[in-house]
Design goal:
The chain is mainly α. Helix content is 24%, strand content 0%. The protein has a domain at 18-46. The chain is built from 1 helix and no strands. The structure holds zinc ion.
Length: 68
Amino acid sequence: MTTPPRKAKADPCPICRKPSQAAFAPFCSTRCADIDLGRWLSDRYVIPAEDDEADPPPGGGRQGGSDH
Ligand SMILES: [Zn+2]
């Protein structure tokens, strides 16, 4: 096997494309991590409203009480 002499280049920050830091991997800073988290939350909040009350979603052990 031939191992490349160069170090494994980490993927850049998916938010700003800057070199990611190990402390904030895969992001470059906590700010970008927060931005990505915000996108995640906003994406999760977008739930398609279906007119189907006959099958309620399982909301038993959901810990969704995080309020900013
Ligand atoms: Zn970044």
